[in-house]
Design the sequence.
């Protein structure tokens, strides 16, 4: 079945930014912070230089993105977050300090996400309508918390290559193949060096071409500390320029795609309840 993309487009390419800066490192090392500053400074390239490079690139293309921002980052870098909003991009939740929901109980999830939503709204004047889980690590509890906060969509799961409904929220799905971290993330000690910008451009061009043929969504996810470096920004601009110019490809924000799905595409969706599997369900070998 073909999916009814906005304006009769045959497929969609959604450009998203996870502006998490140093927050994942701070969360990961919260119990043993240590004195090393190498990865912290590497990640701080994002708010210092990388984000501005990506914003300029999107201005050149007249492309609007969804930017998922941890509350801690918004609190520490309010000028950069204000700049994102003033240039017409969507702001959405990404935890408080990039903590995955599986590491928190329900009350802490509600408290931290509520605080993050208040922080983003205080900077931009608009309450966020969407959420992306840090590290795309989800559990069932988060859906109820998101409903209570008035969040209408999530962008963390991979159960389809088009928007769909999960527990009453619109899911705008992601894909590791079109996230820049598997290509570029390198913080030392890994025998595999980071991929080159042409390698990422070639892989993502194939994903976009396939989405156009199959009528699906190509969800692109970048991080300013990774993709904000000059050669990588240039590769993104050359990749995305023909996408933006092609009327057969929808380049709406994640929020716009979610709203369109709820209003036009419909569908009953799925529930995450009742998926607990026991060993008996999996079958046991017979033993004498």
Sequence:
């Amino acid at each position: 079945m073909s999916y009814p993309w906005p304006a009769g487009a045959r497929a969609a390419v959604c450009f998203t930014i996870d502006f998490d800066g140093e927050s994942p490192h701070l969360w990961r090392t919260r119990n043993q912070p240590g004195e090393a500053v190498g990865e912290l400074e590497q990640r701080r390239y994002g708010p210092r230089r990388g984000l501005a490079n990506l914003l300029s690139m999107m201005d050149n293309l007249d492309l609007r993105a969804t930017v998922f921002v941890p509350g801690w980052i918004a609190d520490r870098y309010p000028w950069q977050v204000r700049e994102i909003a003033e240039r017409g991009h969507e702001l959405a939740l990404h935890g408080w300090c990039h903590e995955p929901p599986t590491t928190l109980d329900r009350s802490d999830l509600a408290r931290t996400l509520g605080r993050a939503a208040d922080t983003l709204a205080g900077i931009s004047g608009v309450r966020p309508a969407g959420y992306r889980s840090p590290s795309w690590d989800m559990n069932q509890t988060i859906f109820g918390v998101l409903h209570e906060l008035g969040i209408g969509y999530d962008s963390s799961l991979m159960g389809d290559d088009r928007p769909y409904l999960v527990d009453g929220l619109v899911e705008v799905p992601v894909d590791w193949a079109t996230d820049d971290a598997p290509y570029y993330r390198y913080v030392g000690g890994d025998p595999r060096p980071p991929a080159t910008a042409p390698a990422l451009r070639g892989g993502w061009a194939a994903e976009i071409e396939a989405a156009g043929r199959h009528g699906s969504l190509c969800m692109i996810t970048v991080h300013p500390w990774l993709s904000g470096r000059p050669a990588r920004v240039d590769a993104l601009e050359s990749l995305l320029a023909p996408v933006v110019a092609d009327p057969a490809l929808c380049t709406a924000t994640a929020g716009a795609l979610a709203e369109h799905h709820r209003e036009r595409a419909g569908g009953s969706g799925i529930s995450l309840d009742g998926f607990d599997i026991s060993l008996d369900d999996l079958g046991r070998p017979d033993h004498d």
Observations:
- The radius of gyration is 19 Å.
